[in-house]
Write a structure and sequence with these properties.
By secondary structure, the chain is mainly alpha-helical. The chain contains ten helices and no strands. It is about 70% helix and about 0% strand.
Length: about 170
């Protein structure tokens, strides 16, 4: 249990820890507040709603992607950051779908397209492909953990990387 009056960074840090530990279905504002040692209402000094907190969480997940050069490497880095967290794809995809949070992922892709002398408008479609693919992969990973998809959960992301790379290559072309 943490001390009272957490800032937004502390809230997002603890939310990310809870996400990795329990998954999105169990990431409630009440549980988050309990872990921080505050009343749930204290969280609303920093975020307007649970969805706003999830948008900040999505931004944090995407911020973990290391710098990369080129469209393909940037897309891979973003994919890796998303898949590094349990339910990361769902968090990032839902925030993007509702146009909440920042636009850093699309901006990073747009910058990579520009640097390669390509039309940066393709960044939006590339991000949509990336998020859809990451969601599919993460669902397979979770199904493998439950034994309803025949694969090693840890290997699913690596095994689907070639199809991701092929998709990115087609989008770039």
């Amino acid at each position: 249990m943490r001390s009272a009056r957490p800032g937004l960074d502390g809230i997002v840090d603890e939310a990310l820890a809870l996400l990795d530990e329990m998954g999105l279905p169990d990431l409630s504002m009440r549980r988050l507040a309990g872990r921080l040692g505050v009343q749930p209402s204290a969280l609303y000094w920093h975020v307007d709603s649970k969805q706003a907190m999830l948008a900040a969480l999505a931004d944090r997940i995407l911020d973990e992607a290391p710098p990369a050069e080129g469209v393909a490497a940037t897309a891979r880095a973003l994919r890796g950051a998303i898949l590094a967290h349990r339910d990361g794809a769902e968090v990032v995809l839902s925030s993007a779908a509702l146009a909440l949070g920042g636009d850093a992922a699309r901006e990073r892709l747009a910058a990579a397209f520009r640097a390669e002398g390509r039309d940066e408008r393709a960044a939006t479609v590339t991000l949509q492909f990336l998020l859809g693919h990451a969601s599919l992969v993460q669902q397979r990973m979770q199904a493998a953990e439950l034994g309803i998809y025949e694969a090693d959960p840890a290997a699913v992301a690596a095994e689907t990387l070639a199809e991701f790379d092929a998709g990115i290559a087609r989008l770039i072309a």
